[in-house]
Design goal:
Chain C: GO terms for molecular function: ATP binding; ATP hydrolysis activity; phosphate transmembrane transporter activity. Chain C: This is Phosphate import ATP-binding protein pstB. Chain C: InterPro entries: AAA+_ATPase, ABC_transporter-like_ATP-bd, ABC_transporter-like_CS, P-loop_NTPase, PstB-like. The structure holds 3 protein chains of 3 kinds. Chain A has helices at residues 3-9, 20-30, 34-71, 94-125, 128-141, 146-160, 162-172, 188-212, 216-224, 229-258, 261-266, 285-293, 298-334, and strands spanning 82-83, 90-91. By secondary structure, chain A is an all-alpha fold. A two-stranded antiparallel ribbon of chain A has the order 1-2. The longest helix of chain A is centred in the first third of the chain and has 38 residues, at 34-71. Chain C is an alpha/beta fold. Chain C has a domain at 3-91 and 168-252: 3-Layer(aba) Sandwich (Rossmann fold). Chain C contains 10 helices and 10 strands. A 6-stranded mixed β-sheet of chain C has the order 6-7-8-3-9-10, with helices on both faces. In chain C, strands 2-1-4-5 form a 4-stranded antiparallel β-sheet, covered by helices on one side. The chains are: A mainly alpha, B mainly alpha, C alpha/beta.
């Protein structure tokens, strides 16, 4: 039973007779067989295809966007107008950028703390027998398509929000931001709430996975110092999980920025910017594309493609930032765990 | 001994502790108070009394606990109550989503609904069904799968089995980038290439191409993970027997990881089945049955939901159909998910937790 | 500050599995008591019942009494958090908080327990690091991450962290098993110094270590795999290693089994 008796009985590792060097040589020689050559060609070809596809996406979107931009008589980034089929065509994305950013910020502000809370609930607070099934169900909810969230949002959530809107107007209306003029609650604020509900499962899942991986010994270190459960979480769980939570949030943010149908179904859009979040109006990149597409002319479509290109660039930046944060954090918090 | 002064305070290991039912009592009290305040002030929304109750619960338990047990315990309790509140806050909308879809979906969901199209039914009238939409969805998703699986699996094989150097790094990077493409952008790309530049018409196939852009990175990622799990000893054993590398991959590596790869592919299918935006741009939608995905507009389940909602004119019949279609869609996706997870569990190495 | 530990009739479970059965012993203040025995005999489990860490393991449950100077740790109304504050613990693998600096690691326990002035905190950190024989090695890098130290330094950092809150008892769960011989020696020397101030209980796999550092030694054994571990005997270390009263102890010490 003792370690001492274990050591001599350990058999020589079976992998020992096949060290790495001969394998590489074999692989190199193997590549000259016709079968190997074809197979390598196919798989490398697929890789190249993926690269070509990405290049094509960038090139064709830019090409169509440039056609539209060359006809545009307004400033593409600052104009509040969207009239690409007018004579002369005038359109700009300022309203869309505002709506996209605002609704995503609201969504993140609501979803991230709650998601972290649920993740902690599953890993550290819920009774053990409850935690597993809850995690499983939330996992499944992440697969519910956005169109269903949109339907639910438009037909169930919106009617339920009137009370909250009135309330915000009563108590916070003086700020201007929460002023409500009794329209249907189909504003950017509602969009933010719906987006929050939509991205909740994905942020929860990733955070939960990270919290579950916190080494037991770090938690025990805090416990042994006489830390309460919350102090254990603050001292060892949250620092360890921070980069994971950030990347989870960025994943959620990416979804919120690009969400189309749910926004299109809930938002009562118009091409202007309201000081109040509770008043209808505004729009997002993706929603605008879906809503305007049907009646768009050729220039109109190219204009929509141009706005899609902006959305594409924004999501690329968000994803890139997320990856950089994770890469930088890794050295520090992963440590010698 | 600067901190010896502390010792008298902690001469005892006993702190005043509130009983176990304390949290439940405060929760019940908060709910009652929340309801009471709402009733008194004439508030109508469930959201309002729930928020009042949640606030009362968090602050109430902090206040009482801070008085009786001390600041540290109170803070611990606050964290606990916040976590519970977060959980309940999240459960309500998610449960409502599932419940409403079930409740409203079963109204018109029957055999007739599944086997008929909307061909002779106006959007505002009751009747009709989703046969054309199911057909379209199956064809579009099937085509997307046919495109994505070979490309995705082969790319993953390249990355794991061959990939070294700059090309592999570039592919890895751009697969990552591709994962983050919003679905509407994928739709716009096919729109600009296929429809605006090549001047092809709207069709199920155009939608399938956009869907495969969304599906390929998911397949690559999951397949990559699975291939990495195959132990190197297995490859070496096969190579050492003089089996060529490509046969080793086909006969040893892939069969070992086929369960996980299947799971990944099924989850990817589940993900694109619900995509609406690219389908809306490229397949256009129709009320009639079109069994040829390569020409003319088709329908699809998610788009059907959207069109029923958008064209309802406020009539309940269209909403009922939208809910029923949503229920069908969710059921299909959930079955795919459950089967995929079942396969993963069944094929998982026995060393798992 | 050191306190006496009196254990009587203690059983510990993992779910329905009885891991250790009916253990009674006394641990004297200002002494080092070593627990030895074959793997799986429950000595680490027993150690973790002394600061109520056993119950944080899923399914962990304890019956019986552990008196810390007449106060039962398992009595009703006892706050396990307060217990762990009084009974410090050092683990098998060094586990400094990876995101905290050396300084913050040592101060971690203090910051939980109240507000200190910066100068007070500085004093205690310095004193604790000196107490753990680590001050000279880290005084120039107090603000570097604790995970950047060597394994032996990390373990002494963990000891400094544990003694900074001035516990009554210090539990050590195989503190040297992950360390090289030189670091091990440093820790053993340190244990000799610390027993002037604390009651120390150490679990060790290494019998020479038990013989070197401890005043009293307790031998644990189990009848067979799946059976609960039991305390076979506890006596002065010298007696245990020269003339134990139970045959099984002698067999184990002379290497005849285990």
């Amino acid at each position: 039973m003792d370690i001492k008796t274990h050591q001599p009985t350990v058999p020589p590792t079976p992998a020992a007779p096949a060290p790495a060097a001969p394998r590489d040589k074999r692989a190199a020689r193997g590549a000259t067989r016709p079968g190997d050559r074809i197979f390598l060609g196919l798989s490398r070809g697929s890789g190249i295809f993926v690269l070509a596809l990405m290049a094509a996406i960038a090139v064709f979107l830019t090409y169509r966007a440039s056609i539209a931009l060359s006809e545009n008589e307004a400033n593409f980034f600052t104009s509040f107008e969207w009239n690409p089929s007018g004579v002369p065509p005038k359109f700009g994305v300022a309203v869309l950028a505002f709506g996209t950013v605002v609704s995503s910020i609201i969504a993140m502000a609501i979803a991230v703390p709650i998601a972290v809370g649920i993740a902690l609930f599953i890993t550290h607070y819920a009774p053990r027998r409850l935690g597993g099934p809850i995690a499983y169900v939330i996992d499944l909810l992440a697969a519910v398509p956005s169109i269903v969230y949109g339907l639910w949002g438009a037909l169930v959530l919106v009617p339920h929000l009137e009370g909250l809107y009135g309330w915000l107007d009563d108590y916070l209306g003086w700020t201007g931001v929460f002023e409500w003029n009794d329209g249907a609650p189909r504003s950017l604020f509602t969009v933010g709430i719906l987006l929050a509900i939509m991205i909740l499962p994905i942020i929860t899942n990733v955070s939960r996975e990270v919290f579950r991986q916190v080494p037991r010994m770090h938690e025990e270190a805090a416990l042994a110092l006489g830390a309460t459960r919350w102090e254990v979480i603050r001292m060892s769980v949250l620092p360890f999980g921070r980069s994971g939570v950030i990347s989870a949030s960025m994943l959620g943010l990416g979804r919120a920025l690009g969400e189309t149908m749910a926004v299109a179904m809930v938002l009562s859009s118009s091409f202007d910017i309201n000081a109040s979040l509770l008043d209808t109006g505004g729009g997002t990149f993706a929603q605008n594309i879906a809503s305007k597409f049907n009646e768009a002319t050729v220039t109109g479509r190219d204009a929509l493609i141009a706005s899609g290109l902006v959305l594409f660039v924004i999501t690329l930046l968000v994803n890139g930032a997320a990856r950089m944060i994770i890469a930088r954090r890794k050295e520090y918090s992963g440590a010698n765990a | 001994m600067t901190h010896a002064t502390l010792s008298p305070q902690r001469s005892s290991l006993r702190g005043a502790t509130l009983p176990k039912w304390f949290a439940w009592a405060v929760a019940a009290g908060s709910v009652v108070a929340g309801l009471g305040i709402s009733a008194a002030a004439g508030l109508h929304s469930d959201i309002q009394w729930a928020l009042i109750a949640a606030l009362l619960f968090v602050f109430g338990s902090y206040g009482i606990s801070a008085k009786v047990e001390g600041r540290r315990q109170a803070r611990d309790r606050t964290a606990t109550s916040l976590v519970w509140v977060a959980f309940i806050l999240a459960v309500i909308p998610l449960a409502s989503l599932v419940w409403e879809t079930l409740k409203r979906g079963v109204k018109v969901l029957d055999g007739y609904f599944l086997t008929h199209s909307m061909g002779v039914v106006a959007d505002t009238e009751p009747g009709g069904g989703i046969y054309h939409a199911i057909l379209g969805t199956l064809q579009q998703v099937g085509l997307a799968t046919l495109i994505s699986v070979p490309v995705g699996v082969l790319t993953a094989i390249y990355l794991v089995e061959y990939g070294r150097g700059r090309l592999a790094k570039a592919v890895t990077f751009f697969v990552d980038v591709m994962t983050g493409i919003p679905s509407i952008v994928a739709g716009l790309f096919i729109l600009s290439l296929w429809i605006l530049i090549l001047d092809m018409g709207y069709s199920g196939f155009a939608g399938a191409m956009a869907l495969s852009i969304l599906m390929i990175p998911v397949v690559v990622r999951s397949t990559e993970e699975m291939l990495k799990l195959v132990p190197n000893e297995l490859r070496e054993a096969s190579l050492a027997l003089g089996v060529p590398k490509w046969r080793t991959i086909l006969k040893v590596v892939l069969p070992t990881s086929i369960g996980g790869i299947t799971t990944g592919i099924m989850l990817a299918i589940a993900r694109i089945t619900g995509e609406t935006a690219p389908v809306l741009l490229l397949v256009w939608g129709t009320n009639f049955i079109n069994s040829n995905p390569f020409s003319d507009p088709q329908a699809s389940l998610p788009m059907y939901i959207y069109l029923q909602y958008a064209n309802s004119g406020g009539y309940g019949a269209a909403y009922d159909r939208a809910w029923a279609a949503a229920l069908t869609l969710i059921a299909f996706i959930m079955i795919l998910n459950l089967v995929a997870r079942g396969i993963a569990r069944w094929k998982a190495p026995k060393t798992g937790r | 500050m050191a306190k006496r530990i009196d254990v009587s009739g203690l059983n510990a479970y993992y779910g329905s599995f009885l891991a250790i059965e009916d253990i009674s012993m006394t641990v004297e203040p200002r002494s080092v008591t070593a627990f030895i025995g074959p793997s799986g005999c429950g000595k680490s489990t027993f150690l973790r019942t002394l600061n109520r860490m056993h119950e944080v393991t899923p399914g962990g449950r304890v019956e019986g009494k552990v008196l810390l100077d007449d106060e039962n740790l398992y009595g009703s109304g006892i706050d396990p958090v307060a217990v762990r504050r009084e009974v410090g613990m050092v683990f098998q693998r060094p586990n400094p908080f990876p995101t905290m600096s050396v300084y913050d690691n040592v101060a971690a326990g203090l910051r939980l327990n109240g507000k200190y002035k910066k100068s007070e905190l500085d004093d205690i950190v310095e004193k604790s690091l000196k107490g753990a024989n680590l001050w000279n090695e880290v005084k120039d890098r107090l603000n570097k991450p604790g995970s950047g130290l060597s394994g032996g330094q990390q373990q002494r950092l963990c000891i400094a962290r544990a003694i900074a809150v001035e516990p009554n008892v210090l539990l050590m769960d195989e503190p040297c098993s992950a360390l090289d011989p030189i670091s091990t020696l440093a820790i053993e020397d340190l244990i000799g110094e610390l027993k002037e101030r604390f009651t120390i209980v150490i679990v060790t796999h290494n019998m020479q270590q038990a013989a070197r550092v401890s005043d009293r030694t307790a031998f644990f054994n189990l009848a067979a795999v799946g059976q609960p571990g039991k305390l076979i005997e506890i006596d002065d270390t010298e007696r245990i290693f020269s003339n134990p009263s139970v045959q099984a102890t002698e067999d184990y010490i002379s290497g005849r089994f285990g």
